Amino acid sequence: MKLLCPRVITGSLNSLNKGAVDWGFQGLLAYGSENVVVVVEPKIVQVIQALEKHRSPVVKVKWARENYCHDIASPYTLRLASADTSGHILVWDVAAATTRASFSDGGRPIQDMEWLSQQDTSHDLLAVLHPPYSLVLWNADTGTKIWKKTYTEPLLSVSFDPFDAANVAFLGQDCILLVEDFSCHKVPSSNGRKFYISNSNAGVSGSASTGSLGSHGNGSAGGTSALVSAAERRAGARQMIRNKVKMLVMQEGKHSKIEDAGAVMLTDCLQLAYHPAWRHCLLLVYPREVLLVDLHVKQTVGIIPMERTGSPFVQVFPCRQRDVLVCLHENGAITVRVRKIFASPAPTPNEPGSPYMQIGESNVDVVYELRCQSDPMRLSKQSRVFSVSACPISENKFALLLGDGRLLLWELKTVEHAFAPHVYNQLPMSPLHTPGHRGPVDSATYPADWTFPYKCNVAGPQATIADMIAPSNNTAVEGSTGSRHDVCFKFLLVGMLSGAASPVTVLRMCPPLTTKNWNVYKPLLAAGTMCGSVQVFNLSTGTLWKEFSIHTCAIRGIEWVSLTGFLSYAYPTPGGNSGLIKNELLLVDINTGRTRLLRGDKGVDESPMELVRVSYLKQYVCVVFKDNPMELWDLRSFTLLRQMPRSFPVITALEWSPSASVKNLKRRHESQESADSVGREQTTEQGSPASAMDAANRQEGKPPGAAKEHFVFTDNDGQLYHFVVEGSMVKEGSKIPADASMGSITCIAWKGDMMVLADVDGNLSIWDLKNRISRAIPTDRGWIKKVRFAPGRGNMKLVILYNDGVDVWDAKDVELVSSIKTPKDLPKLHDIEWAASDRPMLSSEDGCIRVLDLLMRSSCSPIQHHDTVEPIFSPYLLPGRASLSLQYHLQHQPWRDEYSLTMTDLVDTAEEFTQRLVNEQVDVLDRDVRSYLPSCRFGVAERCLTVGRLFGDESEIYFWTVALYYLRAEKARPMSKSDSFAKRQQGHGDVFVPRGGTTVHEVQDLVELDNKQRSEAEETDKLWEALRGPALDRCWDILTDGATFQKNNHEQLALHESKRTSYELTQQCVEEMVLLGQGDRAVHMLLETDADSEAYYADCLRACLVATIRSSGASQSTIKLVATNLIANGKLSEGIQLLCLIDKGMDACRYLQSYGKWNMAAWLAKSTLDYSECLEVFKRWVEHLCIPTVNLKSKAVLILLSLGQFNKVIEMLYSMRQFRRAALFIEACLEFEVLNISSDNDALIEAVYLEYGRYLSNLGNKTAAVHYCGKAGDKGQQLRKELDILFEQ
Fold first, then answer.
1. What is the per-residue pLDDT across 894-939, written as a single tens digit (0 to 9) for each?
2. pTM as predicted
3. Are β-strands 385-390 and 397-402 bridged in parallel, bridged antiparallel, or unpaired?
4. Are 1137 and 1106 in contact (CB under 8 A)?
5. Which stretches does UniProt call biased (Basic and acidic residues) (predicted)?
6. What is the DSSP string of 847-914?
7. 3-class secondary structure, 154
8. Which residues contact 1275 (CB under 8 A, 6 or more apart)?
């Protein structure tokens, strides 16, 4: 057990704390409780830090993002930003409990804030939204304001587009503000575009009306019934879409408003957020529905309605790894909704195999099926639902925060679909599918000569939601369906964390630590509450150990009788004229929970208890009433020794003497212990008797011999009385007249030879009994409510509670040590106590219990000083060198004969501490992770991804997820065999092999092979195809493979087409179809234009143009000239369409890039061009991303990975000084046999190994550094000689 350190135990939350909760990539959860920031370790369900420097309630907390490469210069640190209602923002070093920066914008309140992570310029940028309409960008490391932008509309919240850093959406009071020029380098120049939500049936001129479809159906002579029926179905479907779809209508005039009856008010909108798994998708959360708005077409494409009897929405968390929405409801239930992907659309009659569909013939609606729901909760007014947060690494763990301070931790699990009826007690819905390849692999599955992938007999850990269900765009993975199975979701409550039950009325610390009880001692605090429960906290960990609901009214006082038992008394607030109530005095055993009514049937209709004091040796207890005489009870036999007569003085303060005759008692007690058959632990200090509960069970109810004890009390006149108690005898001692300088005595404290009396006027009278000296000290603070001496021999520190604060005095030197005034420094105080000899403890009306330092300046301390119920795995809590050593140790160990989890490489004495820390962290890892790391099937790449998830390293997770997929994809199907990709990572990778030409592998196929060899090659290809795994999901957007990207685009276009409700949306669909080469469908849509529309003639001509160009290649030079002129005159979209019509997509991409439309050019290239042309477009994009004004090299690396340009990836990683990642990527490529070391790249690879060896030597691992020096050529040998000299010294 560590020494008690300053900490805060929080209680119920303030209503302003509602949005202040965040689960970071660091694996820790932070939330605001009043003006305290609480940090929780979810795995062990314990508060590991409580940060208090705010002076007003906390409204926002945000963990810093970890989307950057960590090294010695940028180690793993715990950074957290918090903001309060007064506008102050603090950036914390959570591990050290210190502030790194503090800043504010003139004290203005804060609506929202977010760390910027989609740029490489700095990982310290924090965007803050201030009411009514200001956005400020701060350098959170220095507290410097970078720029400030003031908009024109009141703004409530902000959301940054996860796919494009330039896009930002603001939720206003009556509009949505979209900004498309956000940059961290300069202030946005525009004020954004304002949009209002309106029902689509408000009407827009020129829309493709259903009447045209109906008249077209009746145009034939009479027509057949089937044709008419089909037209009616299409018309009905179109009208149904209009009724459901809501549109974003842009404000055209300065003062124009949407005043139609179908307008949707944004004042009821609870949340606005971009969907991280779906580009251009914006979520709008209302109490009774969730709208999914496609910003590309500016209208809703999906609505999630709440059932009529369902609980309203409170918050929605959109998952990134899978298209899943996690919804929080008012009744405390959490629901999981998974997007349902319908079967492939039926091809149109005009275009066989087209991915588009006729309206009404196939369902392309965006539907989120309810897949799982947690149990609803019984909530009271004090325990309302506040917020939910999800683990961003796994996205299958959720934290539910309630208003009473409780934190519930839910985990999403999967069960076999066949057992779903037994789990849910209902009919099972359609199953979800697992990704496959997570279980152990039979060695017989691989060919005998295969050494990679490695044979693994251990199932991979299901660490994320991506490991639990397959991507939505992979209904079946080619070749791998056999390893997949059907599952359903279920929720498990894995933890609950409770704080102090507000308000806390009484604090009482257990007997102090002594040499007699140190082996069994726990620093337990008993806290009484208004609801009648007693909470017992373990102050070494700050956790709620036990809670006893034993009283029916507010608890008035607690007195410990041993280390395992306490007395508590309670009574309701007196009512009526009589003032009589029912007193409750209970004895509680905290080990068993057994309670005993001390006074038996007494306590009904009597005067309230004012004091209960247990003697120093825990033998007796005095019960003082307001109007009744005092009672003296024997705690050994639970008998009433004496009830004082009616003439007994009215007691205002009472205290027992700490000195007693214990020598004879010790002798008698030791003889009795030797005679007993079962030994009893001595649980109180100074060799006092065993606990009162054990004494009650002694044979014949006979108590042991009693020691003489003394107590003193004062009456209304201030006269002091002295009484002696020995056994059953109570003797009255001396009387001391009242001090004329003192008023009515309110409390007495007695320790050793020092006695302190306090009065209603704020005066202290300190008596030195040994020297017979008294001193009067006026504090000028008013009525003194409580005085307590600190524990510890010779420690004469004194804590004093006033109406307006608390003081700490040194009674020996008679000097003030520290002081707090309320409510200036803290909220109003309820009680005081000592947690340890130098740790005063306070309970306040905000529900918090604070353990302070002696100067009462700090209530927080570094995490390393805190005890935890279990060891914590967190690299962020280690020193920088230790966390980086742990990282490389877990990722790859080629310098060893075999992979080992135990580090033994650091032989230098100075590194022994680092090695011990690393091994301690390894021991804390989960069993499934420890089993799988040595035998990862896909070697270095998969192990690095697993370690990245363990570390919560956002950058590592993104890089190795993409790298592992494309390494497996390249091994499964080389790009030379793909329709759109060619193998390009070796030698001059930019040389393009035409589709129609003879590729390298096709030449090899001309070799005469016998049937056996051909069969073995085919089996090997099939096996690798099965090991390829599911494609990257939608969240990776442009980084997905070509086939998946095109499939997603086709589904999106079909969705847009099905949601057409206006002429403008139809034209957008036509433009996309022309760009994608879907000319026939574009012609069909152009001919749907209403004859009454002004654009009817122009659309007919456009239809003719599209049809003519596709049927004839003549006049392409003229069309290209026209397109060029259009682009030069500002008609970029029209010119691009013409270029795509004549198959000049490469030229179209160049024009788009010239005009700064980089994302559009990439989308067009990946959708329409072959590999060589697409590569050229993307290479220009990569060059643009690497210029200093853009500085998105990390994104450029991922793009090169998706193109299979592995040599270029290594080169860029080296230029970014990410030597560790570059070296490990080379090792992974060599394992997959997709990289040949040749004269073109050997110098680069040696340079990478050299720098990685230097990196390892800086971390103290000579063995690993020497290994990589051997791979680094001549310079590596030179470095090795330097290392020999360095480590010898």
1. 999 999 999 998 877 778 899 999 999 999 999 999 999 998 989 9
2. 0.88
3. antiparallel
4. no
5. 697-709
6. S-EEE--TTS--S---GGGS--SS----GGGS-HHHHHHHHHHHH--TTSSS--SS-----SGGGHHH
7. coil
8. 1246, 1247, 1250
